[in-house]
Amino acid sequence: MSAPRLHPEFFIRLFLDGSVMLGPGKAALLEGIARTGSISAAGRDLGMSYKRAWTLVEDLNTMFREPLVESARGGPGGGGATLTDAGRQVLTLYREIEAASAAVNAERLAALKSMRPAGNNG
Q1: C-alpha–C-alpha distance, residues 27 and 58, integer Å
Q2: 44, 47, 39, 42: which is closest to 74 by C-alpha?
Q3: In sequence order, what are the beta bridge partners of 82?
Q4: With contact defined as beta carbons under 8 Å apart, do 106 and 96 qualify?
Q5: Which of 103, 105, 70, 99 has the alpha carbon at shortest distance from 84?
Q6: What was the pLDDT predicted at 7?
Q7: In the predicted structure, residue 120 carries a pLDDT above the cut 80
Q8: Which segments constitute the HTH lysR-type domain (predicted)?
Q9: Rounded mean pLDDT of 5-28?
């Protein structure tokens, strides 16, 4: 997997139930964990503090029936983290929803961009 896009052109934030949200930050963290095998390394790659990354993992692990991330404490063999089958499935479904939504709205996004002043990237 490649490094996360920190400022995607198009992203989706899903409100699954009241305050339960799945969006680009949590998806990028899951991708980072899959790539690095470490919650702290994935958080660092995203500019998150150690505490923030762990808090998001705890949130992710309680959002669904099954945990999305399994972790092992450090020690002689070292620690680490991996996505569970449920974690891989949630990440895949989120990215598929995001890609399908972007594809359906490509013309609308282009129309919005065409309405911007020339040379304005902000």
Answers
A1: 14
A2: 39
A3: 70
A4: no
A5: 70
A6: 54
A7: no
A8: 29-88
A9: 84
41-50's contacts with Cβ under 8 Å and 24+ in sequence apart are: 42/81, 45/3, 45/4, 46/4, 46/6, 47/6
Above 70 in pLDDT, residue 4?
no
Report phi then psi at 78, rounded to 5. Answer: 80, 160
Q: Are the C-beta atoms of residues 46 and 6 closer than 8 Å to each other?
A: yes
Assess whether pLDDT exceeds 70 at residue 21.
Answer: yes
Residue 6 tokens, joined = 């920190």
Query: Smallest Cα–Cα separation from 94: which of 16, 18, 27?
Result: 27
Q: Residue 19: which of 62, 52, 53 has the closest Cα? A: 62
How far is residue 61's CA from residue 64's CA, in Å, rounded to a whole number? Answer: 7
Confidence bin at 28 (pLDDT 50/70/90): very high
Please state the length of the chain.
122
Q: Would the pLDDT of 1 be above 50?
A: no
